[in-house]
Specification:
By secondary structure, this protein is α/β, with parallel strands linked by helices. It contains 9 helices and 8 strands. Bound molecules: D-xylitol-5-phosphate and zinc ion.
C-alpha cells in the first residue's frame, strides 16, 4: 500500500481496472501491479445495464485468493441485488451499485454494509448529485463515472468535475472514486476537484512501464 495525501488531506489510491488487462493471463497481469497498486477494480457488466459483458464472481473467487490487494467490485448490472452475496463470498472488499439500477438504493446499501464491507453508490454522467444526495449520505463511498459505462479506453468527460466538487464540499470525509478516462492529464483535475480513489484501466495496463504510470497518476 502507498500513502499519498493531497491538499484535501485525503489518501489518494490508484486502482487499476482489470477490464484493460490481457484477460488470457489475468493472474500474471495482477502480479505485475501487485507491488505498487493500492487496490484492484473489478468491472462487472451484464450486457443489459451496459451493452457489454465482462466477468463474474467465479473469476473473482479465483483471483482474490492470489493477491493481497483488495478488490472493489463495480456492478454495472440491471439487478445487482441478486449478485451481492456471491461477490462477497468471492472476496470483494467493497461493492458499488448504480443509482440508476437500484430503485431501493438505501436497502441495497444496507445489505452490502451488513456483510461488513464498504458500500458504494455509482453515478452515471447523466445523473445529478442532487438525485443521489440521500444515497451518498448513507454510502461509504461514491463512484463518479467520468465516461458512460460499458467500455474501457473512452474519453474523459470534464463536466463531471463540478459534480465531484459539490460532493467534496458537502461531504469532506467521504471517499470519492472516479472511473473512466483517467490519464496523467485528467488525474490531477480529478484530485483537485476532490476525488481520492482513481480507477485507471488503459493508463496502467497499456503503459510501457506500469509502476511509473501508477506513480504519475498518484501525483
Ligand atoms: C467503464 C469501467 C471502467 C473502465 C475504465 O465502464 O467502469 O472501470 O475499465 O477504463 P479506462 O481507464 O481505460 O477508461
Ligand atoms: Zn469501473
Amino acid at each position: 500500500m502507498n500513502n499519498n495525501m493531497n491538499k484535501n488531506n485525503l489518501d489518494i489510491k490508484i486502482q487499476p481496472s482489470l477490464l484493460a488487462c490481457n484477460m488470457g493471463k489475468m493472474q500474471e497481469e495482477i502480479n505485475s501491479i501487485d507491488n505498487f497498486a493500492d487496490g484492484i477494480h473489478f468491472d462487472v457488466m451484464d450486457g443489459q445495464f451496459v451493452p457489454n459483458l465482462s466477468f463474474g464472481a467465479p473469476v473473482l473467487e479465483h483471483l482474490s485468493t492470489q493477491s493481497e490487494l483488495g478488490f472493489d467490485v463495480h456492478l454495472m448490472c440491471e439487478q445487482p441485488d441478486i449478485l451481492l452475496e456471491s461477490f462477497v463470498k468471492a472476496g470483494a472488499k467493497a461493492i458499488c451499485v448504480h443509482m440508476e439500477s437500484c430503485p431501493n438504493i438505501h436497502r441495497t446499501l444496507q445489505v452490502i454494509k451488513g456483510f461488513n464491507i464498504l458500500a458504494g453508490v455509482a453515478l452515471n454522467p447523466g445523473t445529478s448529485y442532487e438525485t443521489a444526495y440521500e444515497a451518498i449520505k448513507f454510502a461509504d463511498y461514491v463512484l463518479i463515472m467520468s465516461v458512460n459505462p460499458g467500455f474501457g479506453g473512452q474519453k474523459f468527460l470534464p463536466e463531471v468535475l463540478e459534480k465531484i466538487k459539490h460532493i467534496r464540499k458537502n461531504f469532506p470525509e467521504k471517499i470519492i472514486q472516479i472511473d473512466g478516462g483517467i490519464t496523467t492529464e485528467t488525474a490531477p483535475l480529478a484530485i483537485e476537484a476532490g476525488a481520492n480513489w482513481l480507477v485507471a484501466g488503459s493508463a496502467i495496463f497499456k503503459a510501457k512501464n506500469r509502476e511509473d504510470a501508477c506513480k504519475k497518476l498518484r501525483g
